[in-house]
Write a structure and sequence with these properties.
The protein is built from 24 helices and 26 strands. With about 700 residues, it is of the alpha+beta class. It holds the Pfam family PAS_9.
Amino acid sequence: MLTPQEWEELLHEKDEKLKDALRELADVRTALDQSTIVAMTDHRGIILRANDQFCHISKYPRHELIGQDHRLLNSGYHPKTFFKQMWACIGSGRIWRGEIRNRAKDGSYYWVDTTIVPFRNQEGKIYQYVSIRSDITARKQMEEEVRQSEEKYRIIAENTSDIISMIDRSGEFLYLSPAHKSVWAHDVPDEEIRNMLDWIADEDRDNFLYAIEHTFSTRKEYLVECRLKTKRDKPIWTETKLNPIIDEHDNVTCLIQVTRDTTERKQSEELIHYLAYHDALTELPNRRMYVQHLGKEIMQAKRFQSNMAVLFLDLDRFKDVNDSFGHDVGDLLLKEAATRLKASVKPGDMVARLGGDEFTVLISNLTEREEAAAVAEQIMQVMQEPFYMNGQAFNISSSIGISLFPDDGDNAEDLLKRADTALYTVKSRGRNGFDFFDPSMEAKSLERILMENELRKAIEQEHFQIYYQPKMDIKTGTLTGMEALVRWMHPELGIIPPNRFIPIAEESGMIIPLGEWILKEACKQNKRWHDQGYELKVSVNLSVRQIYQKDLLDMIKATLEETQLEPKWLELEITESIFVKMDEATIVLQQIRDIGIQISIDDFGTGYSSFSYIKSLPVDTIKIDASFIRDVHHNQESQAIVKAIVTIAESLNMKVVAEGIELNDQVAALQENGCGQGQGYLFSRPLATADFEQFLRKEQLGI
């Protein structure tokens, strides 16, 4: 039996243990209150206690929570069955865990990860619940953002016209978007579509395999063109961009592919490629194709020590026919002349149209000089026979200049130039004849010398004026800009048109100071119009010689700074001849474009145009040459050409302007084929500054 002192010691020991336990409980409570949302309710769910964290997240003061149940926080997000199941669980004495979205007092929503623990009394009845919650709002928001992002990309993948897919290194599909059914035009069940390579045309399969291996090994995106098999008569052309997917271990696990049907664009490319090498009117090879072919033939002739002849000819008095009877009759005559020319040469010799009424013939494997003379005589004979157009007979003749390889030159440029020189000599003697090149012909004519001297004086004394031709929105009839065109105001000869002096200026180098003057005057005048409230873009022609001018960029910047014209209100027009030095031109044009100036290609379709070149150039606008517009209202071929150019321009985000519009029927045909802007005499001829100002005022008044 314990003594009183032993009892006292025992009680003291127990009291200390109890105090320690209470201190531990107090510490746990403090830790929970600081880090966790804690609430205590009775068996009916009435809140008996709420800690500070509960009050903070719910934004309710404690006295507004005590005595309420959790319906006060109901967000309406969960269905009634959710809470019914929860009460069934805790009512049976089991612990319930789940995630709940609640609504705070200010109407905002928050998520909590919840654990509810039921407590029983001595009779085994539940008398209270303790809920312990953690704020998971940030995590749920992140999950929702991820879900929305995944949903967005799923919608994009399933509704885009491009095929989006995922493949492994062997080409096996890991994912394939629904667009494949419409693009490939098939009804094969998805489970039977296993490998990308099965759908690639046999001749392109190695190319695609290389693309896969290249992307896996270099870990960089790759663009590949190939044909895909379909249930159509022909495979479709596609462009596929492959991107590597890299895992956390820095390994390429698979590839994402975006495949686009480019068949229509490919067809447009082929048409443009044809246009690049053929004359649209006569379907003869054009200058570009002729020069390339001539270059190859020269290499062959050097190798086998053979001879060739270049015949340069034009049609005498063709301009009179054009001016008197119109371009339609002139075009018919040119087509018939092309037919007669082809019939006058032997198979293997090339006939080409260089432009206007100028043609050239290449005679390969020439045995003697007289053979070229015989061909020239044959051509002259067939050209002298009457041309019957629209029930009327036209009598014309031809003048021909001939250069010989290797006597007169060992490259295409020299042979063409010297054949042209011989042609000029024939025409100066009265036309209707032919002659072989002679070195004495290269001496400049007196007229040329005088013209060059007069032009030099005119540049020094600024005997020039700028005329402006409006560019219009052909749908609305509103003014969209203007092209600056130079005119030589000779004190004795009057107005001299550009076609008479610009070639001399380019050949002599005087185009550099003249071009600078034109640019400065056009920018200065446009700034004046801007200050008057007419915000329009002025287009200024830039010659090939100017493009390769060393200080061109500095000159343009200085001009804009001096005239205070913003770069966005200036457009520079170039011709297709820049494609000869493609790489150099691209660098210069990109530098100009970086300033904010726009670039357009003038007379598109007449020379060197190629879709591959257009894609590579920093260009904003394509101007369709007037030769395609002249008969666009009744010629299906011209309409197809315009449509193809517009299609390509749209795919490259370029604008299209039609030149030489003279008829309302042409406007209707252009609109039907997607062309929205144009210029030509239908709207206005080029106008002097004062006359253009009147045009601007009328436009402003809607007259």
